[in-house]
Queue: 2 jobs
Job 1
Amino acid sequence: MSLKLNGPVVLAGAGKMGAALLEGWLERGLDPANIIIQEPNLSGSALDLANRHGIRAAASLAPLDKAPAVIVVAVKPQVMDDVFPGLAKVSGPETVVISIAAGKTLQSFERHLQPGTAVIRAMPNTPAAIGRGITGAVGNAHVSATQKAAAESLLGAVGEVVWVDDESLIDAVTAVSGSGPAYVFLLVEALAAAGVSAGLDEATAKQLARATVSGSGELLNQSQTDPETLRRNVTSPGGTTAAALAVLMREGSGLKELMTEAVLAAQNRGRELGR
């Protein structure tokens, strides 16, 4: 089914995440003629997509014939305040503004826009680059059902979408899924290093760790079985896996406690950035 919206889509910022979104939209059949990119330094995959599909791109937005249905703001948080005033000039009463800037609140976006503007704060993660991301999102009180559906169709082009009702939960979303890929990559690093400690050469340890984590993730993705059951299925009583899990699940200092501490640290940092 083609992705269709009632008006143009403006993508402000076409870095890695912006380019991933753009590619997802095109794959879902969004008309390139309805996409406008605002990016002073267009390069890489976004430039290639724009050139191949004839997408309009400019360093700044000129007045548009029709107000955008959606404006997606994918710039770095530190330049957000510089970008929003120009976007406000082209938005209309039916425009929904989606921002994926970490730590920036709905209120910080709203102050640049006309009163009553629909705004959505979203947090995708890096697997969006291969269409396997997940995005947490929350909207302000002005977001209509139609606008929410439009936002979900755009964000869903690169993976799953989860909505929360309380904006404060976006910091928890960021801590779990936004930052989560880094935790998984660290697991691969740690597993490979442990393999070397056990006597494997570095190349073999890295190959084993990488394939094990990526393969296990895909098994989990394709299975209807919950993670706990999958874990138990691998664990024979008194076996090698059980010996390892006795360490990882040690009372008070195991992986669960360490991961909880890590996620809460990320959540608290998100709150600090939003002040």
Job 2
Amino acid sequence: MILTLPELITPEELTLVKQLVAGVGFTEGKSTAGELLHKAKNNQQIPWDHPVMKKIAGLVMQALGRNDAFMGAAQPRRLAAMLVSRYQPGMAYGLHVDAPIMAEPNHVRSDVSFTLFLNEPDTYEGGELAFESGSGETAFKLPARSAICYSTGQLHRVRPVESGERLAVVGWVQSLVREPAVREILYDLSEAREQLVGKEGCERALELINKSYFNLLRRHAEP
């Protein structure tokens, strides 16, 4: 499941994140890419262990925590890693799957990935986040302050930036629910429940949806 999160952070939070980023030097993105991805990854980043990332991660995780759609889709348990990525003209990240284990030496499993866009889409050409599917690619280039989350096992790439600068916060969380298909069913049940709340004659349906939701979560959750 690919889920967009419009206006995840406030304008004030965006200003703060960009101020924090402006005072930090970037490193080569290849430094956190495995050997197989060295040729595919061409960008710059502020790595997850840089001191400024503690402030940025706290702000972003707070925003995610108040977003019902993300909480329902991701069922987050804990943050695996977070960084800020920058793409300038000629930079791209080829087709890949994000690492399954992160945050060495703690070894946190990554289940759900997210990208929070920091620049408006009309300030740079290219740089779409594109997902591979059986019928081709689906690409996203969201407004600043908006985010997209998806299963970490999804093949994806960042298309080449032709002009301007693409700036984003990228993160990964470990979910309480390991299986993407189960997370999607839980999300659908939650959405169906919301559609029925307050509607006359739907009390029994709500009881059964709640029963199914909680028992499915009980069966698959890994606290």
